[in-house]
Amino acid sequence: MKYGHSVPRIPLPRTRGAKLIALAAVVVVLAAAAVVWTNSDPAPSAVKTQDATLDLPETPGSSEVVKIDTTTYLPERTPAPAVLLAHGFGGDKNSVATEARELADKGFVVLTWSARGFGRSTGKIALNDPDREVADARKLIDTLAARPEVLSENGDPKVAVSGASYGGALSLLLAGTDKRVDAIAPVITYNDLAQGLFPNAAAPAAPNATTPAAGAFTADGVFKKSWAGIFFSAGSGAAQSGSPANDAPEAGDETSESGAAQGTGAAGAAAQSLPLGGPNGQRPPSGPADPCGRFTAEVCQAYTELATTGKASQKTVDLLRRVSPASVTDKITVPTLLVQGESDTLFGLDQSDATARQISAAGGKVRTIWYTGGHDGGKPGQKLRAQIADFLKFSLTGQGSDPGTGFSYDIQGTLRANGAPSVRTVSAPAYPGATGDATERRQFALAGPAQPVVRPAGGNPAAVSGIPGLNGAVAGSSRLSGLFSLDPPGQAAQFATPPLDAQTIAAGSSTVRLQVSADPSAAAPQKEAVLFAKLYDVNSEGVRTLPANAVAPFRVSGLPADGSPVEVTVTLPGIVRPLEAGHTLRLVVGTTDQAFATPVEPAVFRIGLADGGRLAVPVVHGNSVGAGAPTAQLLGIAGTLLAGIAITVIAAFRRRRAHDVDESLAKTPLVIEGLRKAYAGGFVAVKDLSFRVEPGQVLGLLGPNGAGKTTTLRMLMGLITPTAGTIRVFGHLIAPGAPVLSRIGSFVEGSGFLPHLSGKENLELYWASTGRPADKAHFAEALEIAGLGDAVNRRVRTYSQGMRQRLAIAQAMLGLPELMVLDEPTNGLDPPQIHQMREVLQRYAATGRTVVVSSHLLAEVEQTCTHVVVMHRGMLVASGEVGELAASSGEATFRVDKPAEAAEALRKVGGVSGVDVDGELVHADLDGLARAEAVAVLVRAGVAVEQAGPRRRLEDAFLQLVGEDSKGE
User: Fold this and answer.
1) pTM here?
2) Using an 8 Å Cβ cutoff, are 510 and 553 in contact?
3) pLDDT digits (tens, 9 = 90+) for 384-431
4) What does the alpha-carbon distance between residue 113 and residue 743 come to, in Å, rounded to a whole number?
5) Structural domains of the chain, with CATH
């Protein structure tokens, strides 16, 4: 034995579980060290900011002034080249604070400002009028020229202009009117605002397009009412004429149109730009409301005309032309980087295409980038913003690599990493048709007879192609995307190609020639047709996807009364989409679309193919590259892999939780307590959700799209892990791979049937993959309940969508599970098919088992379910029996002998609203008034009341719970 200082002994783990935990902890620490090392924050920024308010003339030569709120970002070293950074519509200078600081960190002097009518700046919004907003920007260049921190040559400052959407258009207009601008980088912006807001995709003659996304840009277009309404709302309130505009948002508040470009979505943008002190901090008006809000009278009049008539007068066209970059692009010769989004139903790829052609023709040097975002899909990421900065650096100083006049576009795949889809970039040396050879267009044969299409009175119901500003939220899911692509029966003609022999990557705008004729048998044949064309990608299972939710509206005038057809070439929206072998392309031409202004007169048209039904799809060849992986990123990936190993080890240890059983709940099909699911970036899909499902119930999980229903079901099925809370099925705690999952039948993630096998063979193959005995499948019972009949022996490729859905339900019923979970089982079905599906679910519930069905269709839940759970924005807002919930809306129904007199008497009672007559019934929202008092009112009015009771409508209760705005979610 040796004597001296003793060394403390570190106790080592002895049990297997303790060793696993210790190993996982070591791996996690190593992974964290790698990630911290590779992603540690840079040194604190040396950028300084200076705020100033400039008094500028209301118009050139005017004595009236507007106050423009500015911030200048100064880099560590000066003098330096300068960048004017403009914000998007509805934002202000704070909306671009992040981008401004990034540019300043890269060595630029950056000047941001709030445009007229936004933030703290005064004045009226004139949509980038040359004598107003553009003149303001010229004065801002004057201020830069006077600053010693700005690099200049003989008093001429080195200055570039950039901005997104509204700000991007400003950069183009300024470059066309001020020779001091040395380079521009407009992002997701427009070329012609008239075509952006009321496009017409039809041209009488075949196009001679050489660029990949050339639009038809024909006059007399179709009003894009949804987007226009969003932006008019964003600028219509908050400030009174002559008073300061809204308070500036807090730093980093990304709202409005610039927020759409930055990932918040333009629909949310409008919500954040509402008047009366909304989240953006606006002041409420101090006087009478102004219907024109912060807009000039000319802009207000133009919008009013478009919104009420659906057409633009020549005066409105001239106004929009005056404020459009197309009015000056023939004068732009400075280096230009055009960045356009592939997910953009506001300003599509055709807008960037036109600008590229026009500036190239003027002698300008143009580089074009299409990326996966846009007004529907999110802002440029950090890598793309770095490319913009590099372009500006070279253009202003000559430092770095020459960006040239190349063209690149992103192809979004289905593989997801860290929650985001994989993206690869195709690079070409030049933009086809502008600085390079003409675009190749591959010909695909469409087939289908000429078909009659009906425009219903009032244009209602209307087809749905997407929801402006929210389309990107569902773009990654073909099932969710299908919810936003609905074509009412009888309103659309459909034509399809044979299955593709090989993959084709569409990159731009496809074209097709059509024949359109009026119905000669009508009492007054229509002389004009407003139609909407969409090109679906349909996979081998019949699931269709509308790429980028893109639709091409077009107007065909001069239709002969005798029914003779008029031929037009329709240019479909620009998309980037890999069209896989075995898929088909389906052209749908309809009479309505909820995002556009549709004529209200009922009409019948006939749509047919012309020119052999050839669909011309643009293809742009180039070198395909993935994201770069420098050393730091590789180390980061290594850290991620180590973290993955740790997670695997921990997951193995946590599998013990699968045996966590609460015996008191052994007969209860489902109990959810405190459930929460949060994603990276702070988005919370489900918040503190708790409810219980008892045996024999048919529970409807009801809520608008985006309420968190599918996320909840995916957690129930063990497909994703909750952030907090518990899910128990028959007392067993749900975890990935939990044995109790075998007691659940589900249809949540899609069926995935093999099209060359029969329905029965698909079911047998699925059951065999579970490893359970064949005699436990109960094929006969499941098929009888699903009601497929002899069709079960046919190949699935011959099935209609309704038959596929019923087969999917039969698959979920295999083994006759005690709990069946279905996500939107009636999705894509027509009314008769929905009725059949309802009977399928009721027959299954009649066997004594439990069904949980998610839906956003109020009528289906009301007719199918016994109980309902209502979700909104991830939270539980109500639960209970359907009948009880339907009776809770506060509305009442009275059966009376004098309905008209009863309605009149009720309308005179203060607070009572929504009075309407339905035969002998009178319905009214009593707003807290007791029904007995309402009866007394009727009796005093001489009305005999035979019956009084609650009006049992689930729709009313639903809207009362989640709000009218949820109808469009």
Assistant:
1) 0.62
2) no
3) 999 999 999 999 999 999 999 999 999 987 544 444 567 889 999 999
4) 61
5) 45-200+237-405 (3.40.50.1820), 440-622 (2.60.120.260), 660-884 (3.40.50.300), 890-952 (3.30.70.100)
